[in-house]
Design goal:
The complex is a heterodimer of chains A (about 110) and B (about 110). Chain A is built from no helices and eleven strands. Chain A is an all-beta fold. The termini of chain A are far apart. In chain B, strands 2, 4, 5, 6, 9, 10 and 11 form a seven-stranded mixed β-sheet that branches. In chain B, strands 1-3-8-7 form a four-stranded antiparallel β-sheet, with no helix packed on it. By secondary structure, chain B is mainly β. Chain B has no helices and eleven strands. The chains are: A mainly beta (about 110), B mainly beta (about 110). Chains A and B meet through strand 5 and strand 10 of A and strand 4, strand 5, strand 9 and strand 10 of B.
Chain lengths: ~110, ~110
């Protein structure tokens, strides 16, 4: 059964800082990794996904995937107070009917 | 972006009663999902549904749980009878194909 671990549990940064969030997973054959953002009282919102080893950039977001080390990271450039939320790493297994296995999340606070 | 609605937002019921959680998925989506999140724990997959059938269910999807989407209306999760450990936030999600899942805001269920 896939296991997903995120670190750190929480993070406080000043506005404008670069944010780095980490996620480890247990199955190197996992098909894809997704990052979701969740504000209090809301459902998760998909931010970015990655399928292949390497990196992918979308706006202020960059995600790095290393299948050999079973690690994926999300980097947020020029963080804003509106980025304050819980960030969830989710892994989709191969042949898993699009089932997502979530980590416990990282709580990000960006201070103005 | 695409919106998934969930009704009701909160529900309080007595143990042993039946409850139905309703999800209004994105209009052209074909795949539907339920996830469960107990307070302070990570979100966990319950079940997914396509073409009128359950594709996969987890160990959390007890015999007391059932899902259906009669005639393209709401996608529902029914629990009958409820137990104390069913208290959680239930998130519905939908996707067009087996790709990005769009989540609703959740239904907060409290079983007394």
């Amino acid at each position: 059964q896939e296991k997903v671990q995120q670190s750190p549990e929480s993070l406080i940064v000043p506005e404008g800082a670069m944010v780095s969030l980490n996620c480890s997973f247990s199955d190197s054959a996992s098909q894809s990794i997704w990052w979701y953002q969740q504000h209090p009282g809301k459902g998760p919102k998909a931010l970015i996904s990655i399928f292949s080893n390497g990196n992918k950039k979308e706006g202020r977001l960059t995600v790095y995937l290393n299948r050999a080390s079973l690690h994926v990271s999300l980097h947020i450039k020029d963080s804003q107070p509106s980025d304050s939320a819980v960030y969830l790493c989710a892994v989709r297994a191969t042949g898993g009917n699009n089932k997502l296995t979530f980590g416990q999340g990282t709580v990000l606070s960006v201070i103005p | 972006g695409p919106k998934v609605l969930q009704i009701p937002s909160h529900q309080i019921i007595d143990m042993g009663q039946m409850v139905t959680l309703n999800c209004d998925p994105v209009s052209n989506h074909l795949y539907f999902y339920w996830y469960k999140q107990i307070l302070g724990q990570q979100m966990e997959f319950l079940v997914n549904f396509y073409n009128g059938k359950v594709m996969e269910k987890s160990k959390l999807f007890k015999d007391q749980f059932s899902v259906e989407r009669p005639d393209g209306s709401y996608f529902t999760l029914k629990i009958q009878p409820t137990a104390l450990e069913d208290s959680a936030v239930y998130f519905c999600a939908s996707s067009f194909q087996q790709d990005t899942q769009y989540f609703g805001p959740g239904t907060r269920l409290l079983v007394l």
